[in-house]
Every structure is written in structure tokens, then in C-alpha cells.
Please model this.
Amino acid sequence: MIYEPTVARLTYRALLGRRRAAVLFVLPALLIAIAVAVRLLTGADDQIASDVLGGFAIATMIPLIGVIAGTGAIGPEIDDGSIVYLLAKPVKRPTIIFTKLIVAIAVTMAFSAIPTFVAGMILNGNGGQIAIAYTVAALVASVAYSAIFLLLGTVTRHAVVFGLVYALVWETLFGSLVPGARTLSVQQWALSLAERIGENGAITSDVALPTAVVLLVAVTAAATWYAGQKLRTLTLAGEE
Amino acid sequence: MTTIDIDHTSRWFGNVVAVNDVTMRVGPGVTGLLGPNGAGKSTLINMMGGFLAPSTGTVTLDGKPIWRNEAVYKEIGIVPEREAMYDFLTGREFVVANAELHGLTAGAAQQALATVEMEYAQDRKIATYSKGMRQRVKMASALVHDPSVLLLDEPFNGMDPRQRMQLMDLLRRMGAEGRTVLFSSHILEEVEQLASHIEVIVAGRHAASGDFRKIRRLMTDRPHRYLVRSSDDRALAAALIADPSTAGIEVDVTEGALRIQAVDFGRFTALLPQVARAHGIRLLTVSPSDESLESVFSYLVAA
Model:
């Protein structure tokens, strides 16, 4: 698979130029605002820092940004049919998917990992390695979310809805009620890396690190491969 | 010389058959794909463009299958019917991106923009373009790599007469250069002005094929139906049926009119007023009752 700079340029401009992109700026701003408020109200505290980053940044903000960037990297183009200009080119379809994945990952990382790190520094100045740990979790989660939501954007017109259901219902609600569901949660996989980095058991994950790494790699690779296959046989039905 | 071959191809969507066992060959020159809306023209073009798999049969470009074969796009340029483009780009940025995706430089894009005479607006956002300007930029994006095949789906839709003339000139030029140009339309006059060869599709079936004179003749020679009201219907009916240009006349008592089926269009239209005058009958209504394009086309299917 090769990175196609022109596809990447078009994808960046489409992603960041759309109104939906506002969410990409609003959520990190909200995280920073919460961090500032918490720090002013309670002072530096490792447990509170971990709660804020784990509860808002990792559990809510990153999946949402992943949905916007992952589905937004391809969904609208398929919806309105403008993807035809990419498809009617002697460019391998998996290359288009791979390039869009890279863009989605870069955007998700930029809008999730950087604010997570900044918020962590504000909350407790990286005490107990918490800022670093959650930043790593954000980086890792960005990759998996981007791949999953890019696939969703390729296979369904309702990608945003499915993405939100997965991010909010599955990961957040269902995962907190049914322990088994947490094994199949990008959030828990990412946290298992954070668990290793954070000190004093400030961060916990329900998934063992080797399992998490295997699942992360497997899901990302499988989603990307399948999206490439789907794009190869994408049917652009006529308007008749 | 590039040829698209459609061989016993059908395509259905669930229970709906959009294209029904079509076999045709599209070669160099301008070919018009004519048919009423919903006849399957877009489905056929989508299969020729590699965006739709045939349910049965094959669609090939010089013998190579088009479906799932990105290499064919070196030869094919596509002008889709849908309006959606990358509206946030300027015309130039859009065509340059298309050139780059073919491994070409901005120079090729500039040339294509010159060909469609869009240089004057190339630095404006596509979002601000009129329908005709969009069509020309789409055209430029399809031409950047100098393709030997050009597929256009309803390219004249929504264009004003001047833009239409310009695009027709351009397509004629492309055809004269030996390119294989195929465009779809539901308007006979449009196809007639431009295409040397016409393929007619009706209700998913390949209804007719040939040059426009042949198609025109098929269309005008079909039986025409008229609804006629006059001061003396029965006398008029008696006088008309004597002439071989009429095949049947029904006296519709409830409507108070004659339903006439004419087989020789030219002769019947000349005959009717003459006969009326000769018999001192006043014609009150003469209206063709099946001039809709659909009925014209459906006659072709039956022929």
C-alpha cells in the first residue's frame, strides 16, 4: 500500500473545511477548560487528574473525534458521489483507503493526543506519569478508532450514527454494565498501555497488555483491509 | 482505436431489471445513447465506467474487463451526471488534483482547462460555478490524461443553448480525432445533432441501433394516433378510411370524437385538411394522442 499525496490533500481539506470540523475544535477546548477549572478548584491531584483524563478525554472525546475524522474522511464523498473522481483513476483502491486512514489518524491524534497531554500537564504537571500515559493511550486509540470508523464510513451511509452508538453506547454504557464487553473496547485496549506507563496504579484497564496489543493491531489491519476490498466493489448506483 | 464491448449484459437491482440482455459495441466517433428517463442509460454507463458490476454478461474495453480493473482509467475519461464535486476547491485546484491522480503535472491540467475554455474562472471556488461551468470543469477533469474513451452521462442537462453548442463542438472534435465518445440523452434532437451513431435503450432493452436517419425514420414511420373532432365525424371517417394512409378509425361515441390510427405520417397530415374541405366538414380538434417520448420509444421496442 502506498500513500497518495493528492488523495491526502483532498481528504484534509474536506475534513477540516466542513462544518462538522467545529466539533474537532470544541471538544479539546472543553477538555482544556475542564482541566483548568478542576486544577483551580481542587489543586493538583493524581487521582482526579486520572479521572478527568480517563472519564472525559479517553472515554468521550477521543471516540467522538475518531467518529468525525474516520467517517468524515470518506463518508461524505461516497454519499454525494464525488468519490467517483478518485475512483476513476489508475490508483489502487486500497491505496485510497490507506491514505485516508493516515489522514484520519493524523487528524484524530492531533485533536485528541495533544489536548490530552496539555490537559494532563494542567491537571497535575505529569505527576505519576499520568499526562504521558493518557497521551500514549490517546495516540493508540486514535489509530484503532480511525480504522474502525473509516470502515464504517465506507460500508454504510449511516456511519456517524453507528459510530456514535459504538462510541457512546457500547464503549461507555454497555462497557460499564457488562464486564465482558470491555474486552472488546478500543478504550480498554488503549488504557492497558496507559496502565503500564502510569505510576502507583492510577490507571487501570480490564484487558491484559498482550491481548490489548494483539487486538489493536488485528482490528486496525482487518478494518483497513476490508475497507479497501469494499471500495474495490463500491457500487455507485445511478439516479434513475 | 478503442472499443467498448457490451456482451449479453444484464443488471438488476433486487427484483428490478435495469438493463436487460444488452449487446452493443461502442467504437471511435460520437455515439449517442438515447432513451427516456429511467430506461437504464445511467446503469449502462456506470457499467462501462466500472462503477457497477454486470449481473450477467461482460463489459470490456479492448477485450479487458472494466469491473474491478483500475488500469482501464488510463484510457477512460468519465463525466458523471451527478453535480457533486469538491466544491471547496477552485476549478484549477480540482483539475490539477485530477491530473496528479493520473501521475501528470499541472501543465496537463492547464491544457484541459484551456480546451474547455474555463481559464477565465479557474481561480474561483467550484461552489460559485453555474451548472454549465461545472459541466465544463468536469469535462476538463475527464480530459486531463488525454483519454481515448470519453463517457458522459446526460452532459447537456441544464445547459443553456450557448453552452450546449460549445460542448457539442468540443465532443464533435473529440470524435473526429478518433476518440470513442459516448453520451447519454433523453432528447432525440440533441442526439441527432451530435451523434453519427445512435443506440436506443428503452425499459432496459436495446431497442434500436444505427445512424440517426435510420432512427428518425423508425420514429416517424410508426403508426400515429390522432383524436379528431369535426362537424360530421362519420362522414369524415368514411372519407379517410378510403385512403391507404389510415389503418383504422374508431368512432368514440362517449367522447364525441374520432380516434384515427395513421400509418403514413406525412401523407395523413396532408390528407386530413384536404378531405375535410372537399366534404365541407369543419375540423374542430386535431390532436396527436400519443406523442409522448415514452410511446415513441415503446414503439421502437416493439419494432
